[in-house]
Design goal:
The complex is a heterodimer of chains A (122) and B (420). By secondary structure, chain A is of the alpha+beta class. Chain A has a single domain (2-112), classed as Alpha-Beta Plaits. Helices cover 29% and strands 34% of the residues of chain A. Chain A contains 4 helices and 6 strands. The model of chain A has no long low-confidence stretch (mean pLDDT 92). With 420 residues, chain B is an all-alpha fold. Among the domains of chain B are: 1-105, no CATH class; 106-223, no CATH class. Chain B has helices spanning 7-31, 34-55, 61-75, 80-94, 107-114, 121-133, 137-143, 148-164, 177-197, 209-222, 227-241, 266-280, 287-304, 309-322, 326-338, 342-350, 354-357, 361-373, 377-389, 394-405. Residues 407-420 of chain B have low confidence and may be disordered. Classes of the chains: A alpha+beta (122), B mainly alpha (420). At the A-B interface, helix 3 of A face loops of B.
Chain lengths: 122, 420
């Protein structure tokens, strides 16, 4: 079955992406992790995301668009990327999630992907 | 009405619940939907609990349950979803020859799923009791001193999670087995501990100690090489063996040190000792073997007439390295005090995180005991008053009040099962 691994990162993690001293080990860690999953043939799809400062939040209320810059709360962890993998069960998904670099600094959320909708039957 | 304490009723009930649990495990393994499996088999269990004590247990309990479940599914206006789900699997299991078809026992896999780290820890013990033994939510709620509606909700949520999060009912690899099994054993001990503490209280009929022992026995049978399962079963048997000795004829509380060993259940004690020896052969010591060994030392008093404090101290030292249970810390402090070092014991009790013990009655009792041995009478009395205020068992409250009236407090049953 398919699980999405949702990678949460700290402000420090996001800063490390472009920090001259930290960017090399930061990206090496992610490359190794994604490479291992890719080698195992598990990856359905996935992407890294640009930092939370690039986010735009949109709501529609009473027919009006309300647009904000950035995520609402000053939370310690922000969405940094995701990957959808095909594995037999939650335990296997958790084993892979534990190898993500951000599991050590922030967290990984593991969610089963909804199976395709079947047409409602009488 | 059947007499529920009657051994033949108990045997019929066990057969019915064993068959039920096996079938729920088979159905649930099919699509992870425990609630639907229970829905399909619940009426068959009720029918078996009514019929078997009178008619006797059928030759193949599972085949009987399958047949009844199928008929009920056909006849009653069941939800279509349940029928679609359960019927083919039940049919397959019942065919071709119900008398000889084998029913694989997947209850261990189901218990491991119920105690999976992704499942709320507070839901695990209730979940196992309900799913494996078919105990109803109201009775589980009574045993855990919870509102039935709250307990039902907790169970429904946990089952929905098991269905949806993507668990598969497989046995973990040997490297993960001890940790996963430990979660199951912890859940079973939680079911036992809550019942044990209230065994003699009015309304103790809700206690599920017998069911906890039953589940541990099941695991020992299915995993004969796992020493911790044997350790847990031994621990619970030692504690249950003392049940009759914990109250005198007037219903007054009798602390462990003053119990008459003749009142301990010999059959249970012998079985526990045997289990502990068998567990030790595996050469993998663990928390439950350690706690059982502590109980074994107490039982030795019957033969030697003396409590081996040295052995207890060694075992408690080992225990605190294996669990962060405050019961273990408290038990160790009491032994330290009894062995002549009450000041160190008090310091140790003080060092426990306040948030964890402020309302924990055994901690106050232990402090009172240690303070008295340290010659700090007034302080001990203060602790004892606090302990009395936190005691909800009348007999123990009366006992503690009696200790307060005397020169100083004595030790209540501090070395009972380590809970918390």
């Amino acid at each position: 079955m398919q699980f999405m691994l949702i990678f949460k990162e700290t402000p420090g993690d996001f800063a490390a992406r472009t920090d001259p001293h930290q960017s090399q080990p930061y990206w090496a860690g992610w490359s190794a992790f994604i490479g291992a999953m890719s080698e195992a043939g598990l990856i359905v799809n996935g992407d890294g995301l640009q930092g939370p400062q690039t986010a735009t939040i949109l709501q529609v209320r009473d027919g009006k668009r309300i647009v904000h810059d950035g995520p609402f709360a000053e939370t310690k962890e922000q969405l940094g990327g995701y990957v959808v993998i095909e594995v037999p069960d939650l335990d296997t998904a958790i084993d892979w999630a534990a190898k993500a670099p951000c599991a050590h600094t922030a967290s990984v959320e593991v969610r089963p992907v909804m199976p395709p909708m079947t047409a409602p039957s009488a | 009405m059947n007499n529920h304490a009657d051994p033949s009723y108990r045997a019929a009930e066990q057969a019915a619940r064993n068959g039920y649990g096996k079938l729920v495990a088979i159905l649930a393994a099919h699509d992870q939907d425990i609630a639907a499996a229970e829905d399909a088999l619940g009426e068959a269990l009720v029918a078996a609990l009514n019929a078997w004590p009178v008619q006797g247990v059928p030759q193949s309990p599972e085949a009987w349950l399958v047949t009844v479940a199928r008929n009920r599914l056909k006849n009653a206006a069941r939800s279509r979803a349940v029928r679609l789900l359960a019927e083919p699997e039940l049919m397959r299991r019942a065919m071709p020859d119900p008398e000889t078809s084998d029913f694989p026992d997947r209850r261990l896999q189901l218990m491991l799923a119920c105690a999976h780290p992704a499942i709320d820890a507070a839901a695990r013990a209730p979940l196992i009791l309900q799913v494996i033994l078919g105990i109803d939510a109201a009775r589980i709620a009574r045993a855990f001193l919870t509102e039935p509606s709250a307990m039902s909700q907790r169970l429904v949520r946990a089952k929905a999670r098991i269905r949806d999060v993507g668990l598969r009912y497989e046995l973990p690899g040997p490297e993960d087995m001890p940790e996963r099994l430990a979660a199951v054993l912890d859940a079973i001990y939680a079911a036992f501990g809550d019942g044990y503490d209230r065994l003699e209280m009015p309304g103790a009929h809700g206690a599920l100690t017998g069911e906890a022992i039953w589940l541990a026995r099941l695991i020992v049978e299915m995993l004969p090489d796992e020493p911790e399962a044997k350790g847990l079963l031994a621990l619970m048997l030692y504690c249950a063996a003392r049940r009759a000795a914990r109250r005198d004829q007037e219903g007054r509380f009798v602390p462990l040190a003053e119990q008459n060993p003749k009142l301990w259940d010999r059959t249970m004690v012998i079985e526990a000792e045997g289990l502990l020896i068998a567990a030790a052969r595996a050469g993998r010591f663990g928390r439950y073997q350690c706690e059982a060994a502590i109980q074994s030392v107490h039982v030795q008093r019957a033969a030697t007439g003396q409590l081996n404090l040295q052995a207890l101290r060694t075992l408690y030292d080992l225990l605190v390295t294996r669990t962060d249970s405050i019961g273990a810390r408290i038990g160790r402090a009491v032994v330290m005090a009894d062995a002549g070092d009450p000041d160190a014991a008090l310091a140790d009790l003080e060092a426990i995180d306040r948030q964890r013990i402020a309302a924990h009655q055994p901690w106050w009792v232990a402090r009172a005991h240690c303070a008295r041995l340290a010659g700090r009478g007034p302080q001990a009395a203060g602790f004892l008053r606090q302990a009395i205020a936190l005691t909800d068992d009348d007999a123990i409250r009366a006992y503690l009040a009696g200790s307060l009236d005397e020169a100083g407090p004595d030790t209540p049953d501090m070395r009972g099962p380590v809970t918390g």
